Amino acid sequence: MGVIMSKLLQIAIASLALVATGVSHADVATTYQKTCATCHDSGALNAPKKGDKATWDKLKTQKGMDTLVKNTKKGMPQMPAKGLCQSCSDDEFRALIEYMAK
To answer: CATH classification of 2-101 is 1.10.760.10, yes or no?
Structure first.
């Protein structure tokens, strides 16, 4: 029962994050497929994989969401600035990170 409640809580928190940003789940999923999936589905160039909750939780704990968004915007050696989403806002990047983390 505890595992089920934990999963439901995770889903609820992720949903609230999307609602709070005004970004719909469908929009995030579409944007992810267009701009992030190429690397984050396969882990290309050491990109943290979508759904690798342990890795994403570690990144969020160690760096914090603000730093993850900042790094996404400025780019990293293995990732161009803003990934492939030049029009994404900070809120959209947050939603994409949360989407990949679940």
So the answer is: yes
